[in-house]
Structures are given as C-alpha cells and as structure tokens.
Write a structure and sequence with these properties.
The chain is of the alpha+beta class. The chain is built from three helices and six strands. Strands 2-1-6-5-4-3 form a six-stranded mixed β-sheet. The chain starts with 9 loop residues before the first helix and ends in a 14-residue tail after the last strand.
C-alpha cells in the first residue's frame, strides 16, 4: 500500500467508513450470501498471510500469495465457504459464533484508477463460541475497494494478524 498516493476527501472517507460498518453488521448478522453478493467483487483476492516474528536484522522478504496462509481465497473459494455455512454441516459454527467488529483508523487513498481506492483500517474482533469460549483478534486490513454503480466492493483484502500464533480453535469466519 502506497502512502504517497493522495488521500480521499472527507466525504469519500465517510462513505468508505460507512461501507465498512455495513459490511461488519452483515457479517455479524450472518448475512453471508448478501455480503458476498453486494460487498465482494468477483475478482477478489482475500488473503491472510502467515507472518514470522523475526529479529530486525533478518531481512527475509515479506510473505507472498505463493507462501503458506490462513486464507488465500478467490471468489469461488469464498462462495464455497459461504454456501457450506448454510448446510448446517459446519460443526464449528453450530451453534453460531457471536462476533463483534471494531473498525478504527480508516485511511483511504486514490489509486491510478478513478474507481478504485486503497484503504487501511485497524480491526479488533471479539468472537464468542458456546458457553465460555472467547477469542480476540487484532489486525490490520489493507483493501482495494472498487466503486461500482455507487457502491463499494472489495477487490483485494489483505489481513495482517498481530499475533504470531492465532489461538482461536478455527478461523471459519470472515473479517
């Protein structure tokens, strides 16, 4: 993500932030098909790489989509995961998790394309499962949003988890 691109206007930043709030509410309310249909572009790359915690002097390159990842999905992968949730056969989501998203520090920048914007946000996710299982995830989210027919759709999503090892029993939810 290039911080050298010009920032969007306050009005556009507000619209992008509202888009993120609506997206979070759809996922929290388990409206997965609607989320996929309305908020996700058909050419999406949805990626959560696995990062290594290294010493400063260790200059190995950052992960690429060819490396191991928690998620490295395209639209069909996401659609398959969404449809599987409606089968009743996803034991790890029966009963369903209760999830809350806190979205902060949203920044948005223009790109070379007039209809696409690079964004960065901090995300905090609290996930409650069953009686006493609670998991917390803090992460950064780098997106490319495309404005189509007056609505934003995610075309690229890179999720950067702060924890070196994710302690959750599964990651069968969308961020």
């Amino acid at each position: 993500m290039s911080k050298e691109q010009p920032r969007v206007t306050q009005e556009l930043l507000h619209a992008i932030t509202q888009h993120y709030y609506t997206e979070a509410r759809m996922i929290q309310d388990r409206q997965y098909r609607e989320w996929l249909d309305q908020m996700v572009a058909r050419d999406i790359h949805y990626w959560m790489p696995i990062f290594e915690t290294r010493l400063v002097r260790d200059k190995r390159p950052e992960p690429t989509p060819d490396d191991a990842a928690y998620y490295n999905d395209n639209y069909d992968d996401l659609k398959g995961r969404v449809e599987r949730l409606y089968t009743g056969m996803v034991w790890m989501e029966d009963p369903p998790s209760r999830i809350r998203f806190m979205i902060t520090n949203v920044e948005a920048f223009h790109t070379a394309r007039s209809d696409e914007f690079e964004t960065y946000a901090n995300i905090f996710v609290v996930r409650n499962r069953r009686q006493m299982e609670t998991y917390e995830h803090s992460l950064g989210r780098e997106d490319v949003l495309r404005l189509t027919d007056g609505k934003f759709q995610v075309t690229k999503r890179k999720l950067i988890v702060d924890a070196r090892v994710v302690q959750d029993k599964n990651l069968y939810f969308f961020i």
